[in-house]
Amino acid sequence: MSDDIIYVFDFDGVICNSIDECMLTSYNAFYNEELININDVPYQFKLYFYKYRYHVRPAGEYLLICKAYIENKDLSYPIFVEMRKCYEKEMKFFEDRFYNKRIFLKKNINIWLSYHKIYEHANQMISSLSNKFFILTTKDRNSVEMLANHFGFSNKVENIFSKEISTNKSVLFTHFFEQYHSLSNGNQVIFVDDNEFHLADVKHFHLELFFAKWGYAGSQISNNFKEINSLMALI
User: Fold this and answer.
1) Given 23, 53, 174, 232, which is the most exposed site by the fewest CB atoms within 10 A?
2) pLDDT of 14-49, one tens digit each?
3) Tens digits of per-residue pLDDT, 74-107?
4) What distance in Å separates the CA atoms of residue 72 and residue 69, rounded to the nearest whole number?
5) CA 96/CA 44 separation, integer angstroms
6) Where are the domains of the chain?
7) What DSSP string runs through the chain?
């Protein structure tokens, strides 16, 4: 492995499109519902969520989309940042409820899995790798493991650094390099994320950073990072 490129991928928005599941779980958490059918979610809520999903990093921030929706806000990034400060304490409570609602939804495992799609080019990229790769994500580890198994690439995953460690990707990479310290010695370590703020958080590490334009990029304009339209562009 020491002579090879080391690939580290974010999960949601890079490997997997989970926007429908996150939307449904957020709706259930915010309104304290137990819906299992996406068609039961109000259409306007879905449109609003899809439009502003790109702001969110840890799951607690889905609260801000829900709050802004009922207030009919044009959710620009400055407004999102202001709301994050205003609802800091409520976000922790919401995040706990979010994961409880996800557990509820997982009781209908086939339905839960159906609300996720693997990006075809990500599937091609993973299939082409001779070595295993790493996942570094703010998603919970159990969900990543279940989806990797469902999509048939769990045997290609070397390790997962997830929200159980931290929702700060700089902290996650600190743990990554502590555990795999030899990888920083002369190897090219590539990290792909669809959130420019996540990339900015980790730019002090010895990494080659790529911005995934196919994910939940929204109106982000990442002039500071190399943009790619497919994971296959890395080959």
Assistant:
1) 232
2) 999 999 999 999 999 999 999 999 999 999 999 999
3) 999 999 999 999 999 999 999 999 999 999 999 9
4) 5
5) 25
6) 6-17+117-234, 19-113
7) -TTSPEEEE-SBTTTEE-HHHHHHHHHHHHHT-----GGGS-HHHHHHHHHHGGG--SGGGHHHHHHHHHTT----HHHHHHHHHHTHHHHHHHHHHHHHHHHHHHTSHHHHHHT-EE-HHHHHHHHH-SS-EEEE-SS-HHHHHHHHHHTT-GGGEEEEE-TTT-S-HHHHHHHHHHHTGGGGTT--EEEEES-HHHHHHTTTSS-EEEEETTSS-TT---TTSEEES-GGGG-
Global confidence as pTM = 0.93
Q: Two tokens at 161?
A: 């650094």
What fold does the segment set 6-17+117-234 form as a domain? Rossmann fold (3.40.50)
- Spatial distance between the Cα atoms of 160 and 140, rounded to a whole number of angstroms: 10
